Amino acid sequence: MTTISMTVNGKAVSGEVEGRTLLSSFLREGLGLRGTHIGCETTQCGACAVHLDGQLVKSCSVLAMDAAGASVTSIEGMANGDGSLSVIQAAFQEHHGLQCGFCTPGMVMATAALLKVNAKPTETEVRHYLEGNMCRCTGYHNIVKAVMAASGQDVSAIAAE
Amino acid sequence: MHNFEFVKPSTVADAVKAMAGSGAQALSGGQTLLPTMKARLAAPAVLVSLTGVAEMKGVCMGDDGLSVGAATTHATVAAEARKSFAGLANLANGIGDPAVRNRGTIGGSLANNDPAACYPSAVLAAGATVHTNMRKIAADDYFQGMFTTALKEGEIITSVTFPVPHKSAYVKFNQPASRFALTGVFVAKFANGVRVAVTGASNNGVFRWKEAEAALSANFAAGAVAGLVVSPKDMINDLHGTAAYRANLVKVLTKRAVDAAS
Ligand code: FES
Ligand code: FES
User: pTM of the full predicted structure?
Assistant: First the structure.
């Protein structure tokens, strides 16, 4: 076991890991941050998405040791400082962008990454960007609507199917 | 996943040293290798992460063409080659999904040489040069069949230099479930001729479709390949597509790539 340190949601953290410990396992088991979900653990579903040094990654496909020294943001770091929901989270709630909620942490992290590079995406761009995030409830229409709403666009014309 | 010793050098020289140990394996973005290790199809004793080697990252234009560091992510290539080599940038922007593109690297893709990987087609079609810690390898000598390359034990790809075509495009047909390229074609038009490389089709990995190259060198139009026949012999035949289906895709995608070339 090796001790690694990194910054997670703005806080300096450290913990013991093996070579094979995944970043997702370090977050969930090492730090108790279970908001990062594991759907597939094979880089397919995106439930485990976090930001690593500001970039969207699938945390089940990054070794914890490779992320040593980095700055990680997980879903636990997405709410506003006072604990209220961030704009993206509130949009997901408002537009019923979650059903069981399993994919939601990854969807929110992907949305935040998208809006950082594309503040007003079109519906097609949203669907394209979320390609690596699966919703097993297949609630895609409302997820897309929530993302559009979070970007400050009028979503009244987008059908809720 | 079996456990391993993890090392993270910050220079190519240190990475080469670490790779000299028995059972050592280079790890780049890990978007293929880690899933492979989870499935226990690979179990290296030592994993040498290349993500901390700054000299292996970045895209820059030089006298020999566009040089891409081996540890450069797909997302970076997509952004930085956009103006200089749009065909390559578009290819990079179509690999996996945004999260995968933020980790996966060109060097990892080339070292693995998956028969359905996108990058090998660009490297072969552009006639790029693969630079390693030991030597320079021409694309025509580098790819030696499915998952097989000219790389020797312990050899690390450090960068790839692409002669920039006047026009180029990559068009792939996605396998609908995995979104991997079922078959993909990269067309590159240079002053002295056209090169066409096909991925995801042959049992022997990426290959040049020489008949199409000759036809397109004479007349760079989709119709120029209309009369050519691609043999299904040696094409991959699996539940996603028969050999004949893939052979047909080679032609269809070549036409589309010629139409899309810019
Ligand atoms: S759990 Fe990481 S992509 Fe599915
Ligand atoms: S809301 Fe259930 S998986 Fe997406």
Answer: 0.95
CATH class, range B167-261: alpha beta
Angstrom distances, CA of residue B78 to CA of B83, B92, B212: 10, 5, 27
A18 and B3: CB-CB below 8 Å? yes
**Greatest CA separation found in chain B?**
55
Q: Summarize pLDDT for B194-210 with one digit per residue, the tens.
A: 999 999 999 999 999 99
What CATH number does domain B5-49 carry, 3.40.50.300, 2.60.40.10, 2.30.130.40, 3.30.43.10? Answer: 3.30.43.10
CATH number for the region B56-162 comes to 3.30.465.10
Nearest Cα neighbor of B201 from B91, B120, B87, B86 is B120
Q: Do B98 and A62 touch (CB under 8 A)?
A: no
To test the contact with chain B by mutation, choose from A3, A20, A103 the residue with the greatest count of B C-beta atoms within 10 A, namely A20
pLDDT tens readout for residues B72-125:
999 999 999 999 999 999 999 999 999 999 999 999 999 999 988 999 999 999
